[in-house]
Each structure stands twice: as structure tokens, then as C-alpha cells.
Design a protein that fits this description.
Blueprint: H1 2-14, H2 38-73, H3 77-80, H4 86-106
Helix pairs in contact: 2-4
Length: about 110
């Protein structure tokens, strides 16, 4: 039994929620924010920043719950129950990258 749990451990850990810092930004089309004014870009940047902070908070929560689940019963419960917010973190990171690129192109301050 001990050998089986040692062999399965990497697969269990791989199923755990990722650290938000390790999540790569989702790539958005370069023209996503092309029609936005500098003022609107600033508003979208504030909105995406807030959304990213919330997604990171939820992802960290899922990560902690997964760690506890693996420790107690050997299963990353949060990820198994669909509470992993990796896609949200990636989306909001991608939005910020696209918005900041558009702000730079337009010379926004």
C-alpha cells in the first residue's frame, strides 16, 4: 500500500490547484481593446485588476483546500469539486496584458 501511495502521489499533486503566480496569461486577440479610448482603457484596467484580485483569492483558497484534502484523505477536494479558478486567473491576466499593450500603443498615461 505504501508503494502505491508513493507512486500515486505525483498524480494527486498534479491535480491540485496551481499557484496563481504560475498561471500564464490567456492570449487575447490584439485588437480586443483597439476601439477603446484611454479613459475606457483605464476603467477596464481597474475592472480587470479587481477581478484578477478576486480570482487570485479564490485560487489561493482552492489551493489551500486541495493541500488540506491531500493531507487528510489523499484527494485534492477543491479541484475535484470544480473550485479551481485557474481559467479565471489566466483570463484576467490576459485582459491586463492586452489592455496595457493598447494603452502603450495609444500613448495613454
Amino acid at each position: 500500500m505504501k508503494k502505491l501511495s508513493i507512486l500515486l502521489f505525483p498524480f494527486i499533486i498534479a491535480g491540485c490547484a496551481k499557484d496563481p503566480k504560475q498561471i500564464v496569461a490567456m492570449q487575447l486577440p490584439s485588437d480586443t481593446y483597439a476601439s477603446y479610448s484611454c479613459e475606457r482603457l483605464a476603467q477596464e484596467h481597474a475592472r480587470s485588476t479587481s477581478n484578477l484580485a478576486n480570482a487570485v483569492k479564490l485560487q489561493n483558497q482552492a489551493r489551500n483546500e486541495d493541500a488540506m484534502g491531500v493531507f487528510l484523505i489523499g484527494v485534492p477536494m477543491s479541484s475535484a469539486m470544480g473550485n479551481d479558478r485557474e481559467s479565471w486567473v489566466a483570463q484576467h491576466k490576459g485582459e491586463l496584458v492586452a489592455i496595457e499593450a493598447q494603452q502603450k500603443r495609444k500613448g495613454c498615461k
